[in-house]
Design goal:
single chain; alpha+beta; Glutathione S-transferase Yfyf (Class Pi), Chain A, domain 2; Neurolysin, domain 3; 5-stranded mixed sheet; two-stranded antiparallel sheet; 56% helix; 6% strand; binds zinc ion
Length: 683
């Protein structure tokens, strides 16, 4: 008996993938069991299954219905996509040479299948046939909307092109996806290749104590004495703002602004090639340029409209920027890039007796989280609780669940707060499983915030608190979406609308009624003093012209690369073009080795190509929408319920313009952003 059982067990283990946790989608997600060697076999398994489903879909002889044409179509690659989203996520937060190798094998396979599926004329024929049935014509609400969205996707995919052109589209998409992966890997490797060691504490004058302690700990963890600095934000940013040592600032600045701009990590040829392929793709699909293709279904509609929007903001911001620049030049006549943050901080300190480090003790991470969860309970009635004993991908990652007032589970989510070398820089939210008809969603938020100090406490800057609120705002967009159709739920909205829920949340971090619920001094227990709150808000718009110009420079570079830019002598190479363009928006001289296009992952390794303007676009929306909360006392359940009903619960079930109008009762007010940032002339 015993022997038999062993034999059975052994034969089960010998089955391919018996122990492969990526073959089945199980909740809670088995993060602790996923190994790099599971990746390729799992992807192959899901590809096979998807192909079988595709053939079964095409073999149908029944007349087309919603279930057998739309639902069945979406099911073809669902398991493949879900599984691959877990793999992609792990490759972004726990990268290793082995995982990267497997990912680089799997990704082109997945991409090829999905691109071909989107271009499959036989599948499209059935969807089109369904769209012409009386059942389809009678659809209403989200179902009707989804059919429109689906047909739009087909039209834009190139499915109606000749077989030769379809093959070309497929080839272009395949190569673009490879370039994107390579770009991200170069950026990460190049960033990690930089470390700056300082032996003598005397060279760290001006640097705040927590930054010094973190640098000492970083050196110690490598078995070196002294202080170690890297290009990760929590290490880099305090040096740029506070270090009196200009040579130290210069070294880090030069390294940061030239990330991935020369061998062995050189993104320049990748950028040139990417832009070329995007131009070809747009042309093949019948668009004047890639920006027109990208923006067609967004609020902006065309590349020209984006250019006009950014140009108008630039013109209105410029007088404030020039005035700030003149003040800055008095302090730093040489105006090098590594002086800007330092002298801006100095000027802010002089004017308001306030520095961003002063707030750190009031923003301990755990208390900040408790405060944020209490806020959303008051706004939306939802409860966030931490889940213990749930597998995570790193010991410092936490898991939570969100329940509605009635106790119904809405979502679970993971939060990964601190930088690691195996993790991409920046902050983001991702959807791992989008539910429908009330089934719970699964999502995650990722930051690269100040890690815990020797006492085990993570003391955040206000900027980091704001980023936390931002990503949690995206998460709420998923958690509270309640539509009947998975593919219209969550954050799959128009790209220039998606930052509304996230940026709206940032507004609350500037409200005294919100801060007083959690901002108490970590050592003394003293609540955030009124005087400090006043200084913080007084200083809020200091340098607003320059920081807005910084964002406009990225938005403008992005849109011009995808509209006007041509690879000829007039424009020069993309990196030279980028340098020359960015100068117009910068108070400092752009150095010859800076490469603004080499470390611009949003547009070359993420989904923001011809979409970086979305941040500013949605800032107009969030500044405007927040006035409604403000006029009802900020923490208002009544307005919260309305925002949830009109925006957060809706996903993409109606056009973005309609959702906004439903909430505000009118169109967006373009002046709201400039007013909030203090960028309007005072009478
Ligand atoms: Zn965002």
């Amino acid at each position: 008996m015993k022997l038999m059982r062993t034999t059975l067990l052994l034969s089960l283990l010998a089955l391919p993938g018996f122990s492969n946790p990526l073959l089945q989608y199980t909740v809670p997600l088995p993060w602790d069991q996923i190994k790099s060697e599971h990746v390729v076999p799992a992807v192959q398994h899901h590809l096979k299954q998807a192909e079988a489903r595709r053939l079964a879909f095409l073999a149908q002889t029944d007349s087309p219905t919603w279930a057998n044409s739309i639902v069945a179509r979406d099911l073809i690659a669902e398991d493949l996509q879900r599984t691959f989203s877990l793999i992609t996520h792990l490759n972004g937060v726990n990268s290793s040479p082995a995982l990267r190798k497997e990912f680089n094998v799997a990704q082109p396979l997945v991409n090829r299948f999905l691109s071909a599926l989107a271009l499959d004329p036989a599948i499209y024929a059935r969807v089109k046939a369904y769209a012409a049935t009386p059942e389809a014509i009678a659809l209403t609400g989200p179902h009707q909307r989804y059919l429109v969205v689906t047909l739009d996707d087909y039209r834009r995919s190139g499915v109606s092109l000749s077989p030769a052109d379809r093959a070309k589209v497929l080839e272009l998409r395949q190569e673009l996806s490879k370039l994107q992966t390579q770009y991200a890997q170069n950026s990460l490797d190049s960033l990690n290749a930089v470390e700056l060691l300082v032996a003598d504490e005397a060279d760290l004058a001006g640097l705040p104590l927590p930054a010094k302690q973190a640098a000492a700990a970083s050196a110690k963890s490598r078995g070196i004495s002294g202080y170690r600095f890297t290009l990760q934000a929590p290490s880099y940013t305090p040096v740029m703002a506070y270090s009196e040592n200009a040579a130290l600032r210069e070294k880090l600045y030069r390294a940061q602004t030239s990330i991935a701009s020369r061998p062995p990590y050189d993104n320049r040829p990748l950028v040139t090639r990417t832009l070329e392929l995007r131009r070809q793709l747009a042309k093949l699909l019948g668009y004047a340029n890639f920006a027109d293709y990208q923006t067609e279904l967004r609020m902006a509609k065309t590349g020209q409209k984006v250019k006009d929007f950014l140009g108008d903001l630039e013109a209105k911001t410029r007088p404030f920027f020039e005035a700030e620049k003149a003040t800055l030049l008095k302090s730093a006549p040489d105006r090098h890039g590594w002086d800007t943050a330092f002298y801006t901080q100095k000027l802010r300190q002089e004017k308001f007796q306030f520095g961003s480090e002063e707030l750190r003790p009031y923003f301990e991470l755990d208390r900040t989280l408790t405060g944020m969860f209490a806020l959303v309970k008051q706004l939306y009635g939802i409860r966030v609780t931490e889940l213990k004993n749930v597998p995570v991908w790193h010991p410092l990652v936490r898991a939570y669940r969100i329940d509605d007032e009635s106790g119904t589970a809405l979502a679970t989510f993971y939060a990964d707060f601190f930088p690691r070398e195996s993790k991409r820089s920046g902050a983001w939210m991702n959807q791992l499983l989008v539910g429908e008809k009330g089934a719970p969603h699964i999502g995650l938020i990722v930051l690269n915030a100040t890690p815990p100090n020797a006492a085990g406490k993570a003391l955040l800057l206000h900027r980091e608190v704001s980023t936390l609120y931002h990503e949690f705002g995206h998460l709420l967009h998923l958690a509270l979406s309640a539509g009947p159709l998975r593919r219209l739920n969550g954050t799959s909205v128009a790209w220039d609308f998606v930052e509304l829920p996230s940026q709206l949340m940032e507004n609350f971090t500037w409200e005294k009624d919100v801060l007083k619920t959690f901002a108490v001094h970590d050592e003394t227990g003293e609540p955030l003093p009124d005087a400090l709150f006043k200084k913080m808000t007084d200083a809020r718009n200091f340098g607003a012209g320059s920081s807005q110009m910084g964002q406009l420079s990225r938005g403008t570079l992005d849109i011009l690369l995808h509209t006007d830019y041509q690879p000829n002598a007039d424009y020069g190479t993309p990196d030279a073009y980028g340098r020359q363009l960015v100068q117009r928006f910068s108070a400092a001289k752009i150095e010859p080795e800076e490469c603004p296009v080499c470390n611009f992952s949003h547009i070359f390794a993420g989904g923001y190509a011809a979409g970086y303007y979305s941040y500013k676009w949605a800032e107009v929306l969030d500044a405007d929408a927040f006035t409604k909360f403000k006029s009802s006392g900020v923490i208002s359940r009544e307005i919260g319920d309305q925002f949830r009903r009109d925006v957060l619960s809706q996903g993409n079930s109606q056009p973005a313009e309609t959702l906004f109008q439903n909430f505000m009762g009118r169109k967006p007010d373009p002046g709201a952003l400039l007013r909030r940032n203090g960028l309007v002339k005072k009478n």
